[in-house]
């Protein structure tokens, strides 16, 4: 028996859609796990709740509205900027518009499923009360959490028997209709003569091949991609340590070692929750490999996958 915090249909405005220096789209998994970790730290400040922890979580996306403009005749989209307040120029003394900084933003509607450990005795009601107070004060992937009347009353901690098919269906139902994000690192297999970026781009591609008859006339097209029915996206899943432990002048905190890192990009797949055989398959958690300098967000469960093409 495990306890899960279920936060259905959370509205988020102006979340950071630049999940890495290379990609724009759904926020990175480090942002979601970071928000839950920040919530955990706030809860542990209460003496009676110091044993509570949130080791894993799943996220279901119901709506992702990327703030871009695209006219009818143009394939490419342009990021919609914000009009920043005027500031006074030091040279002229007049008020001027600050330089334009391109920022990728998106509005989201998501549901969160968070595993809760250390919930002992009759702490459930106290933990739910603190969560309802602290979560709206946090940033969700850099965006603002928007609450409507009595939304927080649906934020509940529920016991789930993972051997009970009925309990599993009940949890999945609360994430519907939506798409949970699962990791598909298995699609980035090494191939001779291709680097990791080439393989990532190849995995994202939808290819069309012309079909011609014996006379060379076009009779149709064949569409193919890595997973015929899958919705694949590049997603940031952590960082790689480049420098090791350092002490840098004027670093944010001298209590902790400083590291120079680079983001790690992988492939994520959006699937309906009912396609997952268990709750484990949807959950993400931190994994730290000190020997290789990897700080990762990865799926806790395994998934049997099929790579296929459609004609």
Question: Describe it for me?
Answer:
The chain is of the alpha+beta class. It has two domains: 2-69 and 103-183, Alpha-Beta Plaits, CATH 3.30.70; 185-267 and 274-299, no CATH class. The protein has helices at 29-44, 124-134, 165-174, 196-204, and strands at 2-16, 56-66, 68-69, 78-79, 87-88, 95-96, 105-116, 139-140, 143-146, 156-160, 179-183, 207-212, 218-224, 231-241, 261-271, 284-289, 294-299. Strand 12 and strand 13 (218-224) form a beta hairpin. The longest helix is centred in the N-terminal third of the chain and has 16 residues, at 29-44. The protein starts with a strand and ends in a 12-residue tail after the last strand. The relative contact order is 0.20.
Task: Kindly list the characteristics that best describe this protein.
311 residues, alpha+beta, Alpha-Beta Plaits, 2 domains, two-stranded antiparallel ribbon, 4 helices, 17 strands
- Return the structural class: alpha+beta
Strand and helix order: EHEEEEEEHEEEHEHEEEEEE
For the biggest sheet, the summary is:
6 strands, antiparallel, barrel
CATH architecture of the largest domain: 2-Layer Sandwich
What count of domains describes the coordinates? 2
- What integer is the average pLDDT? 85
Looking across the biggest beta sheet, what order are the strands in? 2-11-15-14-17-16
The dominant shape is globular
Helix proportion: 10-25%
Q: State the end-to-end distance.
A: 45 Å
Count of helices? 4
CATH fold-level label of the largest domain = Alpha-Beta Plaits
């Amino acid at each position: 028996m495990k306890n899960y915090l279920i936060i259905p249909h959370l509205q988020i405005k102006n979340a950071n859609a630049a999940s890495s220096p290379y990609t724009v789209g759904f926020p990175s998994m480090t942002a979601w796990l970071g928000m839950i970790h920040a919530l955990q730290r706030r809860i542990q400040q209460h003496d009676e709740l110091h044993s509570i922890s949130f080791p894993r979580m799943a996220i279901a996306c119901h709506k992702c509205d990327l703030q871009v403009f695209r006219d009818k005749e143009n394939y490419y989209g342009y990021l919609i900027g914000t009009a920043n307040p005027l500031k006074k120029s030091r040279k002229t003394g007049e008020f001027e518009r600050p330089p334009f900084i391109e920022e990728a933003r998106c509005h989201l509607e998501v549901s969160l499923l968070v595993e809760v450990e250390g919930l002992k005795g009759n702490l459930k009601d106290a933990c739910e009360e603190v969560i309802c107070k602290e979560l709206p004060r946090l940033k969700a992937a850099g965006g603002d959490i928007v609450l409507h009347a009595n939304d927080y009353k649906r934020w509940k901690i529920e016991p789930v028997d993972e051997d009970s098919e009925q309990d599993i269906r009940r949890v999945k139902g609360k994430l519907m209709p939506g798409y949970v994000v699962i990791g598909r690192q298995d699609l980035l297999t090494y191939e001779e003569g291709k680097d990791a970026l080439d393989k990532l781009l190849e995995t994202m591609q939808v290819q069309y091949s012309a079909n011609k008859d014996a006379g060379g006339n076009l009779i149709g097209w064949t569409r193919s991609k890595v997973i015929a029915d899958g919705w694949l996206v590049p997603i940031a899943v952590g960082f790689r340590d480049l420098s090791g432990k350092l002490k840098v002048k004027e670093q944010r905190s001298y209590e902790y070692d400083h590291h120079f890192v680079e983001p790690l990009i992988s492939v994520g797949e959006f699937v309906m929750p009912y396609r997952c055989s268990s709750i484990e398959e949807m959950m993400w958690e931190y994994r730290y490999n000190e020997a290789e300098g990897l700080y990762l967000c990865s799926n806790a469960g395994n998934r049997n996958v099929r790579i296929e093409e459609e004609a």
